[in-house]
Specification:
Blueprint: E1 4-8, H1 12-25, H2 32-38, H3 47-56, E2 60-64, E3 67-75, H4 87-93, E4 97-98, E5 101-102, E6 109-116, H5 125-137, E7 143-149, H6 153-162, E8 165-171, E9 177-184
Parallel strand pairs: 6-7
Antiparallel strand pairs: 1-2, 2-3, 3-6, 4-5, 7-9, 8-9
Length: about 180
C-alpha cells in the first residue's frame, strides 16, 4: 500500500490509464456474475472527452507504481452538452430539488464516473480518492452529485458509505433506473 499515490490527473498518460481501466470495467465487457458482484461503469469516454473535462477540473486518480488503479472523474456543468448519454442527467438536475432549489441552480461538481481496479478493491482506495476529491473541490463547489444505475448495488452501497444521499430516481429512455445522489460538503 506504500506505493499508492493519490493525486490529480496531470498528463496524457494518466488519462490513457483512466481509459484502460474504464475499458476493463464497462458493463458490456463483464460477465453477468462480475456485474452483480463487482459493479460496472456505463459511459464510454474518449481521450478527447477526458482532456476537455480535465482542462476544467482535474480528475482524481490513485496510482500504483505509475499505473492508474482508481479514478474519480471531475465534471462540471460546463461539460453538460459534451457527452450525449449524460445530457438527460443534466436535464434532470433542472427538475430535481435539493434543499428547496433545483440542483442546476447550485455550483456543483459531477462525479463523472468512478472505478477501482478489481485487484485493488476492498482496501479503502475509493474512500481515500473521495477524500482527495472533496479536499480538491469543497472550497469551490457546493456539493458533489452523480447518478448511479440502481442495479449497480456495489456502487450504490459504496456511495452510501461515503456519505451520498439519494435525492431522486428516474428511468432513462433506455428503461434503465437511475439514482441521483448528492454528497453535501
Amino acid at each position: 500500500m506504500q506505493s499508492l499515490i493519490y493525486t490529480s490527473s496531470n498528463s496524457q498518460e494518466d488519462l490513457i490509464g483512466i481509459l484502460e481501466l474504464q475499458q476493463k470495467n464497462l458493463r458490456m465487457n463483464l460477465t453477468q456474475e462480475e456485474i452483480l458482484s463487482q459493479g460496472f461503469v456505463t459511459v464510454i469516454h474518449s481521450l478527447s472527452d477526458l482532456e476537455k473535462m480535465n482542462d476544467i477540473e482535474q480528475h482524481i486518480i490513485c496510482k500504483d507504481n505509475g499505473k492508474v488503479v482508481a479514478y474519480l472523474l471531475a465534471m462540471t456543468s460546463k461539460s453538460k452538452n459534451d457527452i450525449p448519454i449524460l445530457i438527460p442527467m443534466f436535464e434532470t438536475f433542472e427538475k430535481v430539488l435539493y434543499l428547496g432549489r433545483p440542483v442546476s441552480t447550485y455550483h456543483y461538481m459531477v462525479v463523472g464516473q468512478v472505478c477501482v481496479d478489481k485487484n485493488y478493491r476492498g482496501r479503502g482506495i475509493l474512500d481515500r480518492c473521495y477524500e482527495q476529491y472533496k479536499n480538491s473541490f469543497k472550497n469551490r463547489y457546493d456539493f458533489a452529485v452523480t447518478e448511479i444505475a440502481a442495479n449497480n448495488l456495489r456502487s450504490v452501497n459504496a456511495h452510501k458509505r461515503i456519505g451520498f444521499s439519494e435525492v431522486h430516481k428516474y428511468t432513462s429512455s433506455g428503461a434503465e433506473l437511475w439514482s441521483i445522489v448528492i454528497w453535501g460538503w
